[in-house]
Design brief:
By secondary structure, the protein is mostly helical. The protein contains 5 helices and no strands.
Length: about 120
C-alpha cells in the first residue's frame, strides 16, 4: 500500500516536472517563480537559459516515468534520491543569485524534501 502511494506521488513529481519544463516555452514569464531576481523575460540570453532549464525539466520528468514503467519501486526510490539533488542545486542557484529565500527554501527546498521522502518510502516499502 505504502509503495503504491509513493509510486503515484513519484508519477505526480514526473508530471509536474514535464509541465514546468513545457511552460518555459509557452509562458516564460512564469520563470519569475524560479526565484531569480529581476527576471528579464524579453532578453534573448535569458530565453536561452530558460530553454535549457525547460528541456532539463521535461527530460527529468520523462526519466521518472521511464523508471516508473520499466523499473522496480526500489530502483525508482534510488532514482528519486539522486534526482532530489536537482532542486537542492536550484535552491543554491537562487540563493547565490540573491533571489528570494522564500523561493529557495519554500519551492526548491520543499521539492527536494518531498522527492527525498518519496524516494525513502520507496526504498523501505
Amino acid at each position: 500500500m505504502l509503495s503504491n502511494i509513493a509510486t503515484v506521488l513519484a508519477g505526480l513529481i514526473g508530471a509536474g516536472s514535464i509541465f514546468m519544463g513545457a511552460s518555459a516555452f509557452w509562458a516564460p514569464q512564469n520563470a519569475v517563480g524560479f526565484g531569480i531576481p529581476d527576471t528579464p523575460t524579453e532578453d534573448r540570453s535569458f530565453h536561452a537559459w530558460l530553454s535549457v532549464k525547460g528541456v532539463r525539466d521535461i527530460a527529468s520528468g520523462l526519466f521518472i516515468f521511464i523508471v516508473l514503467i520499466g523499473g522496480t519501486p526500489h530502483l525508482l526510490g534510488w532514482f528519486l534520491l539522486a534526482a532530489g539533488l536537482i532542486p537542492v542545486g536550484d535552491a543554491v542557484i537562487v540563493l547565490r543569485s540573491n533571489g528570494p529565500k522564500a523561493a529557495a527554501y519554500g519551492i526548491h527546498g520543499a521539492t527536494a524534501v518531498v522527492m527525498l521522502a518519496i524516494g525513502a518510502l520507496l526504498l523501505i516499502a
